[in-house]
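Hi support team,

I submitted a single chain yesterday and got back a structure, but I'm not sure I'm reading the C-alpha cell output correctly. Could someone confirm the output below corresponds to the sequence I sent? I've pasted both exactly as they appear in my results page.

Thanks,
R.
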Amino acid sequence: MDYKIEIFLNGESCSFAVSEDETLLDTIRVKAGLEGCKRGCDSGECGACTVLLDGQPVNSCSYLSVQADGRSVVTIEGVNERN
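Hi R., thanks for writing in. Yes, this is the structure output for that exact sequence:
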C-alpha cells in the first residue's frame, strides 16, 4: 500500500507516493532525483546519507519517508543553494 506524503524538500513543496517501509534516502535519491546524499553503510553509522530534518541532522537511510510527512528536509543540494 502506498501513502501520499508531502515534504518541503530544499524549500519546495513536494508530494510523493511511498511504501510504508521506504526510506527517506530512497525517496530523495530515486523519486526526487537528488543524489547528493549517498548510500554508505545502510545502517546509520557512516553519515553519508545525512540530511537536515526540521534543522536537525538525521541518517536518511534509517528514517522512513512516512515519518517525514509535513516536515522540512534539506539535502546537501539545498545547503549549496543557500550559499
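A quick pointer for reading it: The two ends are 39 Å apart (CA to CA). Let us know if anything else looks off.

Best,
Support desk
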